[in-house]
Write a structure and sequence with these properties.
Elements (H helix, E strand, L loop, with lengths): L1 E10 L2 E11 L4 E5 L6 H8 L5 E8 L2 E2 L5 H7 E4 L11 H7 L14 H13 L15 H14 L4 E5 L7 H18 L2 E5 L3 H7 L2 E6 L2 E6 L7 H8 L3 E5 L6 E5 L13 E5 L3 E14 L6 E12 L9 H11 L7 E6 L7 E7 L2 E9 L4 E2 L16 E7 L2 E2 L1 H21 L13 E2 L3 E6 L5 E2 L7 H28 L1
Parallel strand pairs: 3-8, 3-9, 6-7, 7-8, 15-16, 20-23, 21-24
Antiparallel strand pairs: 1-2, 1-4, 4-5, 9-10, 11-12, 13-14, 14-15, 14-23, 17-18, 18-20, 19-22
Helix pairs in contact: 3-5, 4-5, 10-11
Bound molecules: adenosine-5'-triphosphate.
Adenosine-5'-triphosphate binds next to helix 1.
């Protein structure tokens, strides 16, 4: 355990670090974050004994730092400093071997078999084994950094101090280096104290965080420090929005730069309609939430497509099919929400309305062959009928993520109401259907104006969505009904 109490210190008479108290548990990966000049490197230098402390105490494994001899310290802690470009006139392997020095015995410090094994192992782990016979100075910045990390690991320290270890590394080597370090940390109960500038990297790999500002510790503790937008904004003097990594439950942050004023054309779009597909193209990306086959979840999209498929379509990779159709039409697959339907696209309904100054557009294709009452226990009939409701709602307003979810709810309530009013039934249970088994929905907002947190039935936008979706869906369902009757 590393225990720091009321620590102050710096250079000559200047106190850079002021009254810092913090504990780092053994086996933790502790990330020190903070803006340039906040004192991170100075704090590391005080902890590693490079700088004299002016006040306070540092206790490592229950002993004052000052009670350790130089050799004991070298065995206990290794440092990977920022000075990766020091010009050593050695081969890469010789540099790494220097890390074994505190473990070597005798006057001549002979290299043992174990030294060689450790050096080979750490060089492989840091992906520099292939450079072992090359002069250190001829390596690239990132390769040098990895060789110096290998040297630090060769020391087999109990505490590893890293000053911006990923500074020169590309994304692959950043991730692999930190993954190796995590593995090392777990296997050897290694304590890592790392200065990291990239807060998202810190969030992915650190167990605990310390936030420094102007030589003071603003906060130390859990990763939730990275979710405090206000505190980060005050310390870094830049607007920050927190969110989550899409795959793993770790916080991530996005900086919000001052945007150049861009013309947002609201709900202006071009509509292309063929027998095969409907395409609405907007000039500006819209904030979207959808369960589209393509572009699902929260995204920013400019293109919205609904593709017609045969009634017996049974693609094994529908997303891939949509991507190939988009490519044929030269529509970017990266900012597109793509849906599928077996409904005749001639029966698409489109309604634009305005409610207290908010414009709302609904584009719907509807069939009810797969109508289902979601509250009944019956098994869903898997046979494919022409029967999907694809709802696209475009709103000229600024919706928060929560409001987007609210909007999905409002549109869904309107859909169910239309089903009930038209007495559409679940073919298996005979009860009123609440939707169909493969319904798709998109809410897209222009994000013009002030953010609004709600879009439920108690709000103008929510009501607007409800009324527009209901009207559009009723029209689409009537068209579907007419065509079905004709076909009978
Ligand atoms: N050798 C030195 N002598 C005097 N002052 C120094 C010295 N090194 C750094 N400082 C000062 O100490 C303060 C903190 O510097 P430090 O390098 O600890 O910050 P940092 O948080 O690591 O910054 P960065 O993110 O830019 O690396 C700065 O104001 C810096 O000018």
């Amino acid at each position: 355990m590393l225990d720091i109490k009321h620590l102050s210190g710096g250079y000559q008479q200047t106190s850079i670090i002021r009254d810092i108290t913090l504990t780092i548990e053994t086996g933790n990966f502790y990330a020190l974050i903070g803006p340039n000049g906040s004192g991170k490197t100075t704090l590391l230098k005080l902890i590693t004994g490079v700088l004299q402390i002016q006040d306070g105490t540092i206790t490592i494994f229950n002993q004052s730092l000052h009670n350790y001899s130089a050799l004991e310290r070298a065995k206990m802690m290794a440092v990977l400093s920022q000075e990766a470009n020091v010009e050593f006139d050695f081969l890469a392997e010789e540099i790494v071997m220097l890390g074994r020095y505190p473990h070597q015995k005798g006057f001549f410090k002979n290299i043992s078999k174990r030294d060689r094994i450790v050096v080979e192992e750490v060089m492989k782990q840091t992906d520099v084994f292939q450079f072992r016979h090359q002069p250190f100075k001829k390596l690239s910045g990132g390769e040098k950094q990895r060789v110096l990390l290998a040297k630090a690991l060769a020391q087999e320290p109990k505490i590893l101090f890293l000053d911006e270890p990923t500074n020169h590394l590309d994304i692959k080597h950043t991730v692999t280096m930190l993954q190796h370090l995590k593995e090392y940390q777990r296997k050897n109960n290694l304590t890592i104290v790392a200065i990291l500038h990239d807060l998202n990297t810190a969030a992915l790999f650190a167990d605990k965080i310390g936030l420094l500002s102007r030589g003071k510790l603003v906060e130390t503790g859990e990763l939730s420090i990275l979710q405090n937008e206000e505190q980060l904004r005050d310390v870094y003097e830049v607007a920050i929005k927190n969110n989550y990594h899409p795959i793993i439950p770790k916080p991530q942050i996005s900086v919000v730069p001052n945007q150049e004023e861009q013309q947002n054309l609201g709900l202006e779009y071009e509509l292309k309609k063929t027998d095969r597909y409907i395409h609405l193209a907007f000039n500006n990306p819209l904030r979207t939430i959808s369960n589209g086959v393509l572009g699902e979840g929260l995204q920013w999209c400019k293109n919205f497509c609904n593709f017609n498929v045969r009634k017996d379509y049974n693609g094994s990779y529908p997303k891939g099919d949509i991507i190939s159709w988009l490519r044929q039409e030269e529509i970017s697959e990266y900012d597109t929400v793509g849906m599928m339907t077996a409904v005749n696209l001639k029966d698409m309904s489109i309604v634009q309305a305005e409610y207290e100054g908010v414009k709302i557009l609904a584009v719907i294709t509807a069939g009810v062959g797969n109508a289902v009452d979601i509250t009944e226990k019956a098994v869903v009939d898997a046979s494919f009928q022409i029967g999907t409701v694809n709802i696209m709602v475009f709103i000229d307003a600024h919706l928060t993520d929560g409001a987007l979810v609210n909007a999905v709810q409002s549109a869904t309530e309107a859909k169910t109401k239309a089903f009930i009013d038209l007495h559409i039934k679940d073919a298996v249970t005979g009860t009123f259907a609440t939707g169909t088994s493969t319904d798709c929905i998109l809410i897209a907002a222009t994000q013009r104006g002030e953010p609004t947190p709600y879009a439920g039935s108690g709000t103008v936008i929510g009501k607007g969505i409800g009324l527009t979706v209901y009207k559009t869906l009723m029209e689409a369902l009537r068209k579907y009904e007419k065509r079905s009757e004709k076909q009978l």
